[in-house]
Amino acid sequence: MAVKGLGAIDKQYDGSKLRVGILHARWNKKIIDALVAGAVSKLKELGVQEENIIVESIPGSFELPYGSKLFVEKQKREGKPLDAIIPIGVLIKGSTMHFEYICDSVTHQIMKLNFELGLPVIFGVLTCLTDEQAEARAGLIEGKMHNHGEDWGAAAVEMAVKFN
Q1: Does some domain include residue 73?
Q2: What is the value of pTM for the model shown?
């Protein structure tokens, strides 16, 4: 299995002037907590001030697209617009078709939000076949894989800085 991340970036991006939202599902809490921590850690490493990282939770991954839209709109109404948002969720295959329907719907709707909201919406949803795959991608199994939340934090800063 290949273990990949963002790889080399063309330059170090300065996120010190950014406001980044993280909206996360509450299902699979152990994995979600690790992914959120990874994203927050990377955002701070890239200069985003702690007070400009806004973290909110919602019930599950299915709610991420609509919740993200409402979250961005609320921040804008309050005069504190976001420069990027990272919806974070974890979907793990069970024994029914539920997984496929939710993965497909959430993926397409999150992608569409980039255009509808006019800001970077980073795809922070793990779609895994097993609990072990999800734990590995959250960096919870030492030596197996890295924390993908870090990649999502880096992507949010790069996209918000590079094209504004």
Answers
A1: yes
A2: 0.93
What whole-number distance in Å separates Cα of residue 62 and Cα of residue 150? 22
How far, in Å, CA of 35 to CA of 31, rounded? 6
CATH at 117: 3.40.50.960
The dihedral formed by the CA atoms of 53, 58, 62 and 67, expressed in degrees to the nearest 10: -60
CA distance 62 to 102: 6
- According to DSSP, the β-strands at 53-58 and 84-92 are unpaired
d(CA 135, CA 125): 13
Mean pLDDT value across the chain? 93
Q: What positions carry a catalytic annotation? A: 98
Listed residue (101, 26, 16) closest to 52, CA to CA:
16
Domain count, the chain: 1
Phi, psi (deg, nearest 5) at residue 88: -120, 125
Evaluate whether residue 17 is within a structural domain.
Answer: no
pLDDT digits (tens, 9 = 90+) for 37-75: 999 999 999 999 999 999 999 999 999 999 999 999 999
> Minimal CA–CA distance to 88: which of 121, 46, 133?
121
CA distances from 52 to 19, 58, 65, 80, 117 (A): 5, 19, 21, 9, 19
* 119 pLDDT higher than 90: yes
